[in-house]
Write a structure and sequence with these properties.
Succ-CoA_synthase_bsu_CS, 13 helices, 399 residues, binds magnesium ion, Rossmann fold, 7-stranded antiparallel β-sheet, D-amino Acid Aminotransferase, Chain A, domain 1, Dna Ligase, domain 1, alpha+beta, 4-stranded antiparallel β-sheet
Length: 399
Amino acid sequence: MNVHEYQAKELLKAHGIAVPEGHAALSVEEAVAAAKKLPGPLYVVKAQIHAGGRGKGKFKELPEDAKGGVRLAKSLEEVESHAREMLGNTLVTVQTGAEGKQVNRLYVTDGVDIAKEYYFSLLVDRASGRVAMVASTEGGMDIEAVAHDTPEKITTITIDPAQGFMPHHARALAFGLKLEGDLNKQAQRLAKQLYDAFMATDAAMLEINPLVETEDDKLTVLDAKMSFDSNALFRHKDIAEMRDETEEDPSEVEASEYDLAYIKLDGNIGCMVNGAGLAMATMDIIKLNGAFPANFLDVGGGATTEKVTAAFKIILKDPAVEGILVNIFGGIMKCDVIANGIVQAAKDVNLQVPLVVRLEGTNVEAGKEILDNSGLAIVSADDLGDAARKIVAEVKQAA
Ligand code: ADP
Ligand code: MG
């Protein structure tokens, strides 16, 4: 789960980390009121969307030369006019895709006199199975580009979970930022605080780009992007409440209400599968047959008719879907029960696209019979390869 910059900063602040003062705003009036609480005379009005690159972003509704989603303001009047221009408009950045994201919230924050920008991040690194911490002298830039062009400017360390964060980790990072004297000490202290905050919140990713050195020699967090392990949210009620569903794909939100694991992808073959491993294998074999999956969908072990129907509806809401492949292993559930669920769901949603079903497991013969006698144009398949070939052929034929 992702949160907004202002929410990430609230969490960091609660862990004792220095962030510039600021307040969230949902309207022009709130933005001005937020600015009035700040010392001034320099304010920054920042669009709150779940995507980076806001500063260099463009608003769809504004002229090409209009300012982006992070704007300096030298007076309350300027705060007001920036807020008016941004709220309700669509910001397109390198991370939003061409459709952009509507700006519904702003963050009005203290303007900082920046001497230098750095990069700092933490993430769960799958390769090492540890939390990795990344520091770079190249702040405010796209870190992938830095990693590609000048990898020597990036310092990466990983933390052994049994040992925890050690002083030598802090030194490696602070010296990686080429900091000296008191700034080096500040960086060491900050690295430890960030690691502690990351662990305490069950974060999956924390990116500070830029971390800045101010003109009066203080390190401060200027931008913060944070995401959390959804499976750990039950023990962080405060973070779970930060969820902003308007930032998420509506189909994914609906799927989570039915406890379905659904992720939208770019292809045209909708997949309904039980079990994450089987879902991955199904997606692979669709690709092997020259087509692309429209989604990942795991209906779970105990799929009911209700769940299957909800899953069908979610898949069909995607206008890109030209065919559906159902691949279910009847282990805990019996194939005849699943077949009844599929027939019911196909009737309920008045299915118009080709549907290939592959069932395996308990009562498979009875299940196939139900599908064959349903009067619906359901193509039944014998195994995974057969199923993938059939759905790809059906979709090609229909096109
Ligand atoms: P994004 O990464 O989405 O573009 P940032 O928060 O990193 O958004 O802001 C972009 C740039 O705007 C920063 O690199 C920094 O130069 C400037 N900036 C952001 N916040 C402030 C601030 N509080 N004071 C001064 N400059 C800022
Ligand atoms: Mg940034």
